[in-house]
Amino acid sequence: MGALPSVAFKSGSNKLDDNAKAALASVAATLRNNPGCKVVVVGYCNSTKKEQQLSWDHVNAVINHMIDKEGINGDRFFFNYGKAGGDCNTVDLRAAAENESGNNTEEPPHPNLRKN
Question: What pTM did the predictor assign?
Fold first, then answer.
């Protein structure tokens, strides 16, 4: 499937801007051309509850956009948030390994801190 783009968010926001939507449209096109492939959606930051929730919000925003706006089945995504080692305002997308598994939804870790 090749390399997939990252999606950047403005600091402290979980809104997708036009650049992010364009990147996700290209990912959707790639997924349509590779119907057997799945994507791991990775959000970063795990040091505070607020960062963990924002990481969840970012991953959730990307997956929901792909389902609601691009028409990609939610079963094709693996929800992976709160990871160390990345930019808190970036979500990475990568092709899942052949035998990789995971959930396509996760409960928010700190719902009282959710961004609306």
Answer: 0.94
